[in-house]
Amino acid sequence: MAGVLFLCAAAVLLLAAGGAVPPPPPPEEAARMARFVLHNCDWGALATLSAQEGLRGHPFANIFSLSDGPPGPFSGSGVPYLYLTDMEISVKDLEINSNASLTVSLAQTPYCKKHGYDPQNPLCAHIIFCGSIVKVKDSEAGLAKKALFSRHPEMENWPKDHNWFFAKFNITNIWVLDYFGGLKIVTPEEYYSVKP
């Protein structure tokens, strides 16, 4: 019995340390799937409407590190936090129009490769969030910092003269593609009410 308990404890520690990705929820649990995918992703593709000369009004996608909480099961808040600077080209777009979409995919985890799923295969789940980017308030900055720096420790040493700030993706719409048959719509209320 002690051996079984030791193995269970070791498995929990391995997951908490960012080891193997646990299996995703079943496809009929779309809100949990959205929370699961976001929590297991360290980065996403953020699309803005460009304000840059020659691209104005066109979609512009860029990669950003993100986190909804420290690694490990049951530690995600569901809120995608980002660490941004006004010097970044996409942030310049957001200063004009804060609306954006954010896509995260299990393709960046070992899960899809292990099962032989191409990133475009619906079984390699991906989530599309629509909403806006907002600076976090001082009362939330500690949560954002812990979430981001626990997964991206080098951020703490990024140049201070770049005036980094914590932001979050304010979710208004969620689409889940995790099985055949098309996208599933999840409301923010459903998303935040489930346990990941």
UniProtKB/TrEMBL annotation:
GO terms for cellular component: cytoplasm; endomembrane system; extracellular space. Keywords: Glycoprotein, Secreted, Signal. The keyword Oxidoreductase does not apply. Residues 1-20 form the signal peptide. It is found in: Secreted. It comes from the Eukaryota. Pfam families: CREG_beta-barrel (PF13883). Residues 25-193 form the CREG-like beta-barrel domain. PANTHER family: CREG1 PROTEIN, PROTEIN CREG1. Belongs to the CREG family. This is CREG1 protein. It comes from Pygoscelis papua (Gentoo penguin).
